[in-house]
């Protein structure tokens, strides 16, 4: 695989710094310190190229991203979290897909634009952010104007996010857990709560509250996703408190109801079932009571 899009001389300082951040790899809070540019692999199981699992208009995303033409999703394989209940485990843990150059990712972006998508939605980009930022830069230089959505797990390093300022229009992080012991057991990330809280603050600093145009489609801002887990395992109320009190009372949040006990969840007794209607309702009501902008 000759050259593989790694000639970085035409890229900006920010993109080059992101690529340098893979040797040793300190792109995310795992701090694996492996040399991914020499083929070493860390927790995310991914080399220096992005593995693209699928590309296409997606109509199952939040309505503010879908519009008429769908959200232009680019699903990236691998993940820096180890969620035992992963709802996308074939992509995230088994890493199904093909390694693609930044040039190839740019082609996908223009294909999605040609299909009438309202945005480009990078799904699970954190561990391959150098390739994602490089592709965004090239696409912008070639005239792509669609908003860029950074659709991530929330386990992000603030220093890395700072290098993305100006590249991302809509940050769409998960906020998965507010309790460290649960985050350790269910995602192998005891520091998830503090890391995700700091990351969301930085995202909001960059893009502010979600702005939705007269056509009902978002153009910029923060959109938080929160998947309710059974038996209060997500620590939902603390997350709502944090968003309302430390981010903005106008934060837009999608309280997601679709939890299913996938992957290894059946061996964890507290999450081996779906949520009840009452569990979901309590979280939604609490979010509303805090004044948050809760999507339907
Ligand atoms: S991006 Fe991957 S290799 Fe780098 S620190 Fe994170 S998990 Fe480790």
Annotate the secondary structure layout.
Blueprint: H1 13-20, E1 50-58, H2 63-66, E2 71-76, H3 89-92, E3 98-100, H4 102-114, E4 120-123, H5 129-141, E5 148-152, H6 158-163, E6 170-173, H7 180-187, H8 192-207, E7 211-212, E8 218-227, H9 236-247, E9 252-256, H10 277-289, E10 293-294
Parallel strand pairs: 2-4, 4-5, 5-6, 6-8, 8-9, 9-10
Antiparallel strand pairs: 1-2, 1-3, 7-8
Bound molecules: iron/sulfur cluster.
The site of iron/sulfur cluster has 13 residues, from loops.
Q: At the fourth CATH level, what is the homologous superfamily? A: Aldolase class I
Q: Give every kind of bound small molecule, once each.
A: iron/sulfur cluster
User: How do the SSEs run, as a string of H and E?
Assistant: HEHEHEHEHEHEHHEEHEHE
* Strands, total number: 10
CATH architecture: Alpha-Beta Barrel
Give the N-terminus to C-terminus distance in angstroms.
Answer: 46 Å
Nearest-integer average pLDDT: 95
Please give the share of residues in helix: 25-40%
Structural class: alpha/beta
Q: How many helices?
A: 10
**Radius of gyration, Cα only, in angstroms?**
18 Å
Instruction: Tell me the overall shape.
Output: globular
- Number of self-contained structural domains: 1
Percent strand equals: 15-25%
As residue ranges, the low-confidence spans are 1-5
